[in-house]
Amino acid sequence: MIDRRDFLKTGTLAGAALLLKPSRALAATADATIEILLDEPLGTISPLIYGHFTEELGAVIYDGVWVGENSKIANTQGIRTALVEKMRQIKAPAVRWPGGCFADSYDWRDGVGPRDKRPKRTDFWVDDPDSKITPKLGPMNYDPNQFGTDDFVRFCKLCGAQPYLAANVRSLPAYSFDQWVEYCNSPAGSTTYALMRAANGGTAEPYNVKYWGVGNESWGCGGTFTPDEYAAEYRRYTAWIPDYGVGLELIASGPNQDDVAWTQGFFENIFGKRKINPPFGWSMHYYTDLQKALDYQSTDVYPGYSLADRMEKIIHDHWTTMGVFDREHTVKLIVDEYGPWYRFSDTKLDPTHVLGQQLTVRDAVMTALTLDIFNRNPEKVAMAACAQLINCIDSLFLSHEDHFITTPIFNVFDMYKDHMGGESVRVEFAAPVITYPRVQLKKELSPVGDESVSPEETTPEAHLWGLNGSASRIGKTLTLTVVNPHLTEARETQIVVRGATASSASAMVLGGEDVHIHNTFAEPENVKTKTATASVNGSAVSFTFPPSSVVKLTIALS
Ligand code: AHR
User: Fold this and answer.
1) E strand spans, 140-280
2) Which is the closest atom of ligand 1 to the Cα of 256?
3) Which atom of ligand 1 is the closest one to the Cα of 287?
4) For the residues of 430-486, what is the DSSP string, one character each?
5) Under a CB-based contact definition with an 8 Å cutoff, are residues 36 and 497 in contact?
6) Minimal-distance CA residue to ligand 1 atom 3
7) Mind listing the pLDDT tens digit for each residue in 264-303?
8) DSSP one-letter code for 272
9) Contact 215, 168 (CB under 8 A)
10) 86 CB contacts (<8 Å, ≥6 apart)?
11) Is there a contact between 318 and 254 (Cβ–Cβ < 8 Å)?
């Protein structure tokens, strides 16, 4: 039985929750309703929001992407073939490299040329506590540079993805950035770098790398600049970069989570004081900081979901701040690092996997609700990268030597790929709200000193929406993705499509069981998506969303 007070309607802005009573007709038959408003388009979902991130960190590259040309593990010129196949399956649109913090310590010249001549360098992460406890020295401490620009571009090409390179602003001169662009993009035979590219096992034809990050986290590991100092660097690094007709899309180093002062300072400088061509994108990083990846209580789950759900408010706050200076909103948000990060639990599958962690259905729920947020804000978010692709934080894959498995995060990307390039439409969700003790939220936050719980949030209870998601349309196919975060309750739901008739519907379900479920090398298929039946009656579809689930409904419109 649903109490009126417990019924939450979630609109396009998750934070603006409204208590609603379900209509009498629907209340008699369903726990919840979803209304899809086809006549209220929000914009086209950029395929690039389904992007990935591979940093030279721990086992992301070495043991993850790169196994080496002479390895017994199936590889394509040194790149793990099983990974490439899975990347093609999810239609990976873009991959970011070489960092992350590593980017501002990296000289791209170290990673090109004959492999046996490449220098070994100290990795940015060498002093990380996780790096220090590795049983032996390896590529996670000292980077052998066996994987460089040509290998990364080849990896992207094999996957069918666009390369997104992050340039070093903290420790290399601006001219090195120009030269990296020249190495990648100058026409066949035109420059010494173009000749080197061909001779190095790359291609005579240019790589035409379009997406370039200008530093990474320049407020922190990328230089500890002030916004004005970084704006000055940004001007210097981008004042002259050869374009070679590629149409470079430059991405400036944006804020850490909700730091709008960084956004304001940069935009005020770039748009106010001697205006320059604004960047294509404003990078933003938001990790959901949590404690235990596997050994968590059910009471820890909702606080984690609420933290992940903050992404939408953070996006809105930066967007509004950007709009004060960039009135036409020419600059888009690039959320190129996000995901749940368990900073206090050791669940990595091998000790060499710096920042490695296990991923459960709980993480799939958080990743799915994040992708739904991007889908609901297509005019704001132009690109994103899940951090990181393999063996690190919110990984889609875990590998060690010849072991290679997918995680539930992979299942989410596989389900959500149908949104790529679709027209996002407004959806209204009405479902019983989840109430949990606020103390749990504070408990999740306290170890990492996150002060983002505002002082006025002192009520004993916290709330989370009961159902949420996103919908997009491509021609006569409507894709609806929905998260049911409730740990034990299914939601029998009436889905109404306004503006068209639903002729058939099919469903894919991830979860529905214990949220702790995850894959291991010994049990690689604990987590699977299942098909399910959705019944259709005119413009309404009925479906029961299992507890702790991520669901994709594919609805044929007539
Ligand atoms: O993804 C791990 C690290 O988190 C990245 O290197 C950095 O950009 C962020 O702080």
Assistant:
1) 142-143, 162-167, 211-214, 249-252
2) 10
3) 4
4) EEEPEEEEHHHHHHHHGGGT---S-TT---SEEEE-S-EEEEEEETTEEEEEEEE--
5) yes
6) 100
7) 999 999 999 788 889 999 999 999 999 899 998 888 899 9
8) I
9) yes
10) 396, 397, 406, 410
11) yes
Q: How far apart are CA 466 and CA 435, in angstroms?
A: 10
Q: Is 130 in the pocket of ligand 1 (CB under 6 A)?
A: no
369 and 315 in contact (C-beta within 8 Å)? no
| pTM more than 0.90 | yes
Distance 420 CA to ligand 1 centre (A): 26
What residues are paired with 462 via a beta bridge?
436
216 lines ligand 1 (CB under 6 A): yes
Q: What's CA 48's distance to the chain center, in Å?
A: 10
Q: How far is the CA of 503 from the centre of ligand 1 (A)?
A: 46
Euclidean distance between CA atoms 376 and 313, whole angstroms: 12
- The string of pLDDT tens digits covering residues 198-220 is 999 899 999 999 999 999 999 99
Check if the beta carbon of residue 483 is closer than 8 Å to that of residue 531. no
The DSSP bridge pattern shows strands 461-464 and 75-76 to be: unpaired
Contact 150, 201 (CB under 8 A): yes
How far, in Å, is the centroid of ligand 1 from the Cα of 254?
13
Residues of the chain with pLDDT under 70: 1-29, 439-459
